[in-house]
Amino acid sequence: MNIDLLREELEQDEGCVFSIYLDHLGKKTFGIGHLVLPTDPEYSLKVGVPVEQLRVHDCFEKDIKIVLEDCVILYEDFYSLPESVQHVLANMMFNLGRTRLTQFKDLKKAIEARDYNAAADAMIDSRWYTQVPNRAERLVQRMRVTAYNLESWDKPDTTTKEQ
Question: Which residues pair with 17 in a beta bridge?
């Protein structure tokens, strides 16, 4: 998996802030959506305090490692999926966390069946889709493109060549 590309995608969806801010739930956050934990040195710092670029990078590396481990826990064959599907699932895992993503039962069934159109449908049929509509629609479209590309690849060439 191209982690640099995943980082770019997550930066687009999460933003990248080099100071502590409150997320939409009022929780301290910084960097690329890093939730400040009691174990973080920033936990006692106030909103607005700057955070060094290296620290943001280190937290992202730790966060993405956990995300990918969680993806493998939820989808044992995660790394055998098309890379575009890996990116969609990792993005959703980063956004939702394993506990909430585990609740997407129809998505899991569709992914296991390699039915990426059904996976896209399952993504649309969720509260998450209405909560983060721009992100969700982008990820749904990516899943649909994957389905289309795989279907096109598997179809025999029915064009006739002139002789």
Answer: 31
